[in-house]
Amino acid sequence: MTFNRIYLQLRLTSRSGGRTVKYNDSTHKSENNEIEIFEQLLTIGQAIQEKVTKSPKEVYQLIVEAICRTTGADCAVLYPYHPAFGEFYDVENVVAYGLHHELPIEEKADKKRRLAARVHQKGEIIREDVKDEDPQIYEKSSFIARERIRAFMGLSLRMGENILGILYVDYRNPNSFSEEEKRVIRLFGQQATMAVANSWAFRLAALRSETVAKFRMIGQTLVAIEDPSRSLDSILNSIAHSACEVLDADMVDLYQFRQILNEFTLPPIMVGKRNYPHLVPPKIYDEDLVIEVIKKREVQYFLDAQSTASLAKGFEVPREGAPDQRFVVREEVASSAAIPLMAAGEIVGVMFVNYRIPQMFDLEQRDIIETFAAQAAIAIRNARLFQSEREQRQQSEMLRQRAQIVSSTLELETVIGSVLDQLRKVIEYESASIQLIEDDRRQLVGGRGFLVGTSPPELLRNISQDPLINRIVQEKRPFVISDTNDEPLWDHIPQTVKVKSWIGVPLVVQDQVIGLLTMDHTQVGYYTHEVAEIAAAFADHAALAVHNAELFSREQRRNRDLNVLNQSAIKLSKILDAEQVYQALLDAVIETLDCDSCTIFLAGADNRLVAHTSGEKPS
């Protein structure tokens, strides 16, 4: 109803047929009441025009206060309807007046059940004494019990087919609603309808404008982020900070995920002001939400994070050094969104957008969040591809240089030492070893970080007796242990108690495993599959260098042996004394076989053995 029509109605009550009507006292009071109502409606109308676009809650508050003042009601509550969620739960704009207790937001009106459903269906419900007329509502409604309500009028605020809210006008004593009182409440209900309608029209228009601006901002931000000269960590940090700004979030956590390896890169990128900034997840557990997001590959929104079991319940598995409370509890997160970052069908990460103020996550807000996530995923994938290509170029050049150094000599001992020294320049380690394989046996030929010759026998047992080494030899590919405590094939012995991360790489030449290259570190998670790929590339060069050096060493030994035999033959041909012949033979054998002593047994005429010994006496 427009103000002119309201004014006309009021004028008709005071004039009739062009003649002025004489009033008694009750008529005069009625006229004054009508004027007061008109003034209140006029004030509300002006407020709708001036404030409803910027401060709708102020207008709603003005309406519930005016109703109570003009009708004598004890309290009133206005629940604006949220069209995106189909609920009377516009959490930011619920207003009340005259309540004895603060209105719990969880007591939202529900259009599908309880009293709100009946008001929604009928359009209007009046209870002059709810205790007698509707004892079920009187007994079950926590609001009515808490505020001691005995009478109320509930109005469904509609404009055409659109539901805009519910207005309750409440009395703490039984109340007989006169026709005049009902008419006044309905007039204010119409004003409330206009206020909510105008508010939503403006909010939607402003939100669309803001959404367009944010989409433009997202594009500009992520285009600026994709600078090929920047590192991947720098780009990830920029994405997380931009998410906080563009999505108006309090905190953003960005987990990088390697789908091909099915593993996360820790620690995550964490931005935003935190209560416990020093707490960084050192490990991902199966019960963590991030695992569920990866498995489901879909966005999850949590309007009430504190009541969501997967976010707020205690840990199922004890976590050493971890706080007792989960993230959303200790950081007081009210609402959260968990988004898998996907590009070209590949999950490249998971982003958590966290708010300390409750969010409704309506369609527009979800659209903004998911648009940002989609473009962020593309930026991450592109940055990874560029970084991978750049690292491959750098690694290829570095490996080429190391290979030249390793292959610059054919002396086996020198090559072994060079391989281990150059390996440290490529991959950091606490200790490393090179083992050569012959049949089922292993021989330790070089090491760094420990004294060669001090290794316990169980660390060099036959391949068939060592499941871990046997697997590497059979599969002919690297084996990575990020955490030795979680690896059943790892030997837990005193000599390896400090080892937390380990890599074993086969040295393969012409599809034959000729040896092993091993590295270990005292830090859990230090070695990853990416490191193993670099180690495997280095091992290809190292295997060839070791193989060539070993062939060269064998050829040197063969030439030396032939030379010794040749010299011995010439020497023997010139000796006639039997004892001298025996001694020359013994010397030749010792030199050729590189042994400490040698004995020749000759059978005499009486079949008795005569021993001729050179070097240490046999026992």
**Count of alpha and pi helical runs:** 17
CATH class of the largest domain: Alpha Beta
Globally, the shape reads rod-shaped
Helix content, binned percent: 40-55%
Main β sheet profile = 5 strands, antiparallel
Q: Which architecture of the largest domain would the CATH scheme give at its second level? A: 2-Layer Sandwich
Might you state the CATH topology name of the largest domain?
Answer: Beta-Lactamase
Average of per-residue pLDDT values: 79
Tally of separate domains: 4
Oligomer: single chain
The main sheet orders its strands as: 4-3-7-6-5
The termini sit apart by 123 Å
Query: What percent of residues are in strands?
Result: 15-25%
Structural class: alpha+beta
CATH superfamily of the largest domain: GAF domain
Poorly predicted segments = 1-29
The total beta strand count reads 19
